[in-house]
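Researcher: Batch entry, complex prediction.
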Amino acid sequence: MSLVFPHTFVPWFRSVAPYIHAYRGKTFVVGLAGEAIAAGKLNAFVQDLAILHAMGIKLVLVHGFRPQVNEQLEAKGQVSRYAHGIRITDAVALDCAQEAAGQLRFEIEAAFSQGLPNTPMANATVRVVSGNFLTARPVGIVDGVDFMLSGLVRRVDGAAIRRAIDIGALVLLSPFGFSPTGEAFNLTMEDVATATAIALQADKLVFLTEVPGIREKPDDADSDIDTELALADARRLLAAMAPPQQPSDPAFYLQHCVKACEGGVERSHILPFAADGALLLEVFTHDGIGTMVVDEKLESLREASSDDVGGILQLIEPFERDGTLVRRERAEIERDIATYTVIEHDGIIFGCAALYPYPEARTAEMAALTISPQVQGQGDGERILKRIEQRARAAGLDSIFVLTTRTMHWFIKRGFAQVDPDWLPEARKRKYNWDRRSQVLVKKFV
Ligand SMILES: CC(C)(COP(=O)(O)OP(=O)(O)OC[C@H]1O[C@@H](n2cnc3c(N)ncnc32)[C@H](O)[C@@H]1OP(=O)(O)O)[C@@H](O)C(=O)NCCC(=O)NCCS
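Model: Structure tokens for the complex:
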């Protein structure tokens, strides 16, 4: 018996298509906590990365290694010491870190080299490139604590990393850097990933971590995970959180996300590695699974530009096919693009509506109102309607109207009233399709 059900597989696969189109050629920097590798998640994670790679996403992977270094230290009878979320690295700890990094790189390269038939890695060819891309400086003495051989990123050779990812390689970075005198410093995975994402002006920075995301109320472990945080809200939340002492504190990740956003990385994510396929869920579904910090400059409700034509066509096409909306050609949408308002989330268009004014009748038609089926029922339809109303009022109009065959009740609930098609402005009446027998609904502002 076949396990593939065309009636679920095909719509599901198509629902992913907008993301595949949107992310081809984009750059993601992914930070993988050493805890994920210790928990046996490496192979599944590498398989997911290989899928992203196959879709044309350019990848930099930064691995962490805290539990592995701790283990080595323990074997030598030493204890791990942290302050401000950063390890205090003495000469023994640095030795342990070098050993752990060597071992992990070996395991990661091995995982990317698998290709057994009938596994997700069959036919995958991901070439892993590593190198001395980072320069470091010492953390120094902070609040009386000498961090010794712990370092911070001083410079990332973004141009060299860019060359490697542009030819299709995956760049693998360990949390090590060298000073100009050749001295090695132990860095944090989070610092390396953040500095690299900023240097590359990456499209996404993603942390796979032991925390499930950022909670709406950080000190209430039962409160919901915030799936999306505007940069300003993230800053406010961070200021209200206790300063991180341990690397596993959510504030430690959040501060790096905020820094990345401030440095020009539009979106950064904190995801739980405990959830299988967390990376795929976050990238290919609307709400994702962890927390995304997004630069609020990218307002989700905005007027459309010519770059949005493809997204709008993709959104409305299924509704044209089933007759809910009248068909519009690409050329028509291109010509009228300035009349559209869209809702965008993470680079994908999820909603749209157009406003066609008839100034002589002091009214305007709202057309092609569509919200993607994936996100209907969350108030986006209402948000877009409000924006269209604002635009009509700003243009000095007295009302807006819609023509609909199936959505009458939605509009009536929102203050529209049915009128006779004769009410329509003359120019619109001439185009009215009497066969379609659309109902005309008007919302008056006064
Ligand atoms: C109509 C539409 C834009 C609403 O978008 P949305 O984001 O789901 O709307 P909201 O979240 O603001 O409102 C959801 C409410 O509308 C109701 N609703 C959705 N479609 C409806 C319809 N065709 N008729 C009546 N009510 C409808 C939902 O049941 C929900 O009700 P509830 O709040 O009582 O649970 C969306 O369903 C859509 O794109 N439909 C297909 C295209 C279409 O019909 N466009 C209008 C062409 S004129």
